[in-house]
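FW: tagging you since you asked about this chain on Friday. Here's the raw sequence from the shared folder, copied in full. Didn't touch anything.
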Amino acid sequence: MDDSEVRGAGADDGRACDRRLDATGLICPEPVLRARACLARMAAGERLEILTDDPMAELDFQVFCDRTGHVLEASRQRGEVRVTRIRRRAGSGPAPD
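HL: got it, structure written out here
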């Protein structure tokens, strides 16, 4: 599954996301690893929307953002899928591990 550019509303709040990553069918730690790789290719302030169905993904992304400085903007359940939006941290260079 590859991430793809999207232009449109994300996470049900009307804000546009810059990229979407479909991580459905993947379990920990794969959704976070793929999100990390995607965020590394994005500019500061851009938003990544991640679709997951792993029940632990919400906690995993909270910890990931706390450790890396990215901002967890939204996390909502939409049917069987959790939609999480992360804003790329400010600053130059790649995100810390």
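FW: The radius of gyration is 12 Å.
HL: agreed, and Confidence is low (pLDDT under 50) at residues 1-11.
FW: great, closing this out.
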